[in-house]
Amino acid sequence: MNRSDRVRAAQAGNRAAFLALIEEQRDRLRRIAYYYVRRGMDAEDVVHEAICKALVGLPKLKQPQFFATWLTRIVINCALTALDKRQRLVPDDSRAAERQPALSSDPDDRLDLHSAVRQLEPGQRQVIALKYWHDMTIDEIAVLLRKPTGTVKTILHRGLKELRKRYAKPDEAAGSTWPPAAGTSELPAEEALRRKLADLKLRAEELFEIPEAYELTIADYRDDKREGGRAMFVWTKAGEDPIWSKPGKDSGLSVELNAQGDLIEYTIDVEESAGDLPELSMEELRLRAEKFALDHYPGALKPFSLTRTKSADSGTLFFYEQEVMGMPLPTSGFRVKVHRSGIVSDFRYFGRQTKPRVPESIVSKEQLLRQIADTARLDLRLTFLHKSVDDSDKDELRLVYEPTTRWMHFRADGTEEAREAADEETESEEPIVWLPVPVPAVEAPPVRTAEDAQKLLGIGPDRYELLREVEMDDRMIGFVWRRRDWQPDAAEDLSLDAFMRERSEETVKAKIDPVGGRLVSLFRFEEELPGELRLTRDECLGIALGFMARAQPGLAPFLQLRRRDEEADSDREHFEFRIGKQGVWTEFDHFRLSVNKTTGQIGSMMGPSVDPAQLQAVEVTPLMDEPEARRIYAEALDLKLGWETDYSGSGKRRRYILKYRLVHKEKGREIRWIDARTGELICSKLD
Questions:
Q1: Secondary structure letter of residue 674 according to DSSP
Q2: What is the pLDDT of residues 231-271, one digit of tens each?
Q3: Closest by Cα among 485, 522, 489, 491 to 506
Q4: What residues pair up with 336 in beta bridges, in sequence order?
Q5: Which distant-in-sequence residues (6+ apart) come within 8 Å of 398 by Cβ?
Q6: pTM: predicted TM-score of the whole model, two decimal places
Q7: Which of the pair, 473 or 418, is modelled with greater confidence?
Q8: For a disulfide at 9, which of 119, 229, 330, 389, Cβ 3.0-4.6 Å?
Q9: Which H/E stretch holds residue 19?
Q10: Rounded to whole angstroms, how far apart are CA atoms 303 and 95?
Q11: Per-residue pLDDT tens digits for 319-329
């Protein structure tokens, strides 16, 4: 599953997919947060808050391929909010530069370094970013870019060599990348922003009739490097929560406009108001979709074609996309969702994209399929299937073979860079060491209610009040507590940041599985005062194991601890455990928690999708060997040609590459796994 597929799976409710996405980005996000706030504990808090915001906002993310960029922006915004709270800004982001009228005469070397990196050629910049900002190994980069390991090492070596030259001359490297310091005060810029936002709000109200019962909840304006200025407005029914409303009872409207007032995105909850209206035919729904698009973009049907339709909840999604060689370009054209009653409930406009270069020749599918059959490797692992995204009748833990090729796409022209000599200066990768976990003898009453969770977390009703209790799905219940002494910001602020701050400041958020009687996750968004303790990592580990035994009874025998050095520059110790049975491990479904070294308090916890009962019951002895599973995989495999977004370059224009994607020859969907006991091919349900 590639990242976009993982994002879609997470949006569909696949918790394991969300955890995998966070795990993939966590260390990079922590470094970004630390670069802003300059304190280890604050950085961890920023990342935790960003994860919570991402979990809440993920269903609204319309472009899964930009997940990493979207998540990075959330972290930056959380970091800036933390800085505001401390009344100290670090001149690193363009927004911070605007808000700090005078910069220190001593330039921050890291800004020069970032500027220098941006001046490298795209290939070098990409490899350096993957290696040092995304913490990927050389082998992982080679797989991702489909280049030989030696080639990646050579690109890295040349990039570092060029970087040393540029970093030695930061003024030359930076060029005009960074804007000059503003000569005006903050007030005119803020006033201009307020006027811009007010004008765009009037434009939104001209485009759409806002129900009288609705009140403005969010009014926010942001600049995007690729897409320019964006204004977002959200109206919700007075007295209702725009996030925690019960399914089918939602009542809200959101509008996103660009800086010129053109409609970019529109969403309205219609189930409650349209539930009694008659159902229209598919043709009538299509005509409603086209009329809506033409009302906002009169020429919208000329450059774009209806490429596919998809049933979604109580409506139908119509995709109108730009086609080249009879194949659609991703994130082009527009998408409209029409409720069965004919009311447009969702619209997203992407626009026309630059026509990509068509390859002079295309490698045959047969040639590539033979190559894949000869080189594919299958890894034995445990994985948790989700019936919402996998071809499975139920959510269950299964023993599977996972093809290492299933995340790979292949250039249609068959080109690949020649192998080059390995870079001797490249540092060797240190392998991860996993250690056995002692099983604490702790009595563990089940966690099934808010009172049980409060007792486990030490949240006394004298200091905390329960704000929300929400059934997340058929197994999970979410709770939010807030300190009783919290005071809201008196200033009127309808920005998205203020909205999220109001929902998170001085709160403790947790999820439980009442059926399994376990705590699933915990995040504290409180301002912690340092305590008097000076706990070692081993002492923190003892606290972590004791808490884990109470939060996840019976899980310890299935864990191994990742060995890490003591975090000397942080007030917290972080622990990561992998999960498995008899030497067969899950890939992403890990267990993580942190302990404050000065107070002994658990700061955060993220539990796995699986529970001990499922691990106890699963069989981990395969009934077929890897060659047999590979044969089954190769016989069912096909290649599907299509355009994909190329992220290797820079600039505002999207670029595309024609690639082959691995699919099941009959179902046309990705083959995710092969059941190691039955030989069943398990495909994705997602398109």
A1: E
A2: 999 998 876 655 544 443 446 899 999 999 999 999 998 87
A3: 485
A4: 318, 347
A5: 382, 383, 384, 385, 618, 673, 675
A6: 0.68
A7: 473
A8: 389
A9: helix 15-37
A10: 36
A11: 999 999 999 99
